[in-house]
Amino acid sequence: MAADVGDEERAHLLAISPSPSPSPRGIITTPYQPFGQDESINQDDNDSSSLHSSEWTVSQSARRLYVSHTLSTWNSRVFEFGSVLYLASIFPGTLMPLAVYSIIRGAAAIALSSWVGHYIDRNDRLKTVRLSIVSQRLVVAMSCGIFLILIKVRTMSREVRIGLLAFSILMACIEKLAAIMNVVSVERDWVIVVARSDTVALRTMNSQMRRIDLVYHQVPALQYPKSIPHTTPLNGGNRQNPLVSIKHGLKKTFNDVRLYFTHPVFFPSFAVALLYCTVLSFGGVMVTYLLSSGYNSSQIAVMRTISVAFEVLATWIGPWLMKKIGPVRAGLWFLSWQLGCLSIGVSIFWRYADNVLLSTLALVGSSMLSRIGLWGVDLSAQVIIQESVPQPDGAERHGSLVRMGSV
């Protein structure tokens, strides 16, 4: 009977007829853990007066997950895109403030992503997601206030402007870490649990989550701690020596690096990390370059919309191709497509460098088409990683992958 319920839930999620077989093809080796392990959730399950506990399905769990991810992604993308435009307006004629802003924000992700994963594994999942959401909203609001002051008050001294810029960079670092906490908790943990070890459901949910992420790229133009972290007292209870703390931090960093390079999913993870090591996307550098080339924000918004349309298209092509030839070969095909598109665009850009219109259109057009390949590779690698990383301490492992990928 339990198997029949599971089939009906998967069928409702995937919009297919329930299969009489209780074991679909391609089962993930990760053991299933109940989505609600918090004591309050268990109490709700035992409460006979609950109207929805007996009707809780995979589809209902996924729907709530989609809503949460939609709101978080909306907030993150609007802030990411808006901060670039604000900095370009506040500091015209130079890329230095934007470069420093982006580098420090990325460095925070590199240095603290592993710690974020460790925190997720050691604390209640639901409270962790709530913390990431609330902190993300607060720092975004504070950053917007700083940008407003910098834009409106032009008479302030240079030292004050630099100080406000430094504070906005700090807020951006906190926002980035909160976004990583939300992504690791939801995309790399809860999705696996909600899919209930069904590979087909997992790929479907991955595609839908990525589709939400990509659509809101365009919007701007649970368990108590398993173990309580503690500090081992030295010399009869004295506080830990700072040198010992530094040594411990360096040792943990070394272990994270070793884990990353010796992990079975190192190659797909490293390949995806290399894909993002480029300025050929509608990030801060390209947007600023297009603005300096004479394009206005409306034209850039149209270009970004077309690019996102190709990216969303990849979320349908990706699962279809993975079903046909598997995630590994699909990733190779998408990778070849991306490299081909970018090679053509860069060649035209260098050949006709004196023609600003032709060179920029070639660069933008090739970047748009290449996004199909990039997000196809991303989806393929995500499936491979999710099927290979075990559930215990999974968030910390994913945090290490995010940390090294941010490099």
UniProtKB/TrEMBL annotation:
Family the entry assigns: Belongs to the ferroportin (FP) (TC 2.A.100) family. SLC40A subfamily.
Predominant localisation class: membrane
Region described as Disordered: 1-52
Species this protein is from: Fusarium sporotrichioides
Pfam families linked to this entry: FPN1
Transmembrane parts of this sequence: 84-111, 131-151, 163-184, 265-290, 302-322, 334-353
Function: May be involved in iron transport and iron homeostasis.
Signal peptide residue numbers: none
Keyword list, A-Z: Ion transport, Membrane, Transmembrane, Transmembrane helix, Transport
Subcellular location, record wording: Membrane
GO terms of molecular function: iron ion transmembrane transporter activity
Record's protein name: Solute carrier family 40 member
InterPro entries for the chain: Ferroportin-1 (IPR009716), MFS_trans_sf (IPR036259)
Gene Ontology CC terms, in alphabetical order: membrane
Membrane-topology annotation of the record: Multi-pass membrane protein
PANTHER family linked to this entry: SOLUTE CARRIER FAMILY 40 MEMBER (PTHR11660:SF57)
